[in-house]
Amino acid sequence: MELRELGERKIISIISSIFSRNDGVIYGIGEDDCAIIRLGEEIIALTTDTVRETSDFPPYITDFEKGWMSTAVNLSDIASCGAKPLVYLMAVSLPGNMDEEELRGIMEGVDACLKKYNCTLVGGDLDRSDELAISGMALGVFPEKKFLARKGASPGEWVSITGPTGIAEYILKCIRHGVERDELDDVEKLYMPEPKIREGREILLNGYATAMTDISDSLAISLYDISRASDVGFEIYEEMLPLYHPAENRMGYEQALQLALYGGGDFQLLFTSRTEDIPHHVIGRVVEKGIWLIREDGRKEPILDRGYSHF
Question: Of 8, 17, 130, 211, whose CB has the highest number of CB atoms within 10 Å?
Answer without folding.
Answer: 211
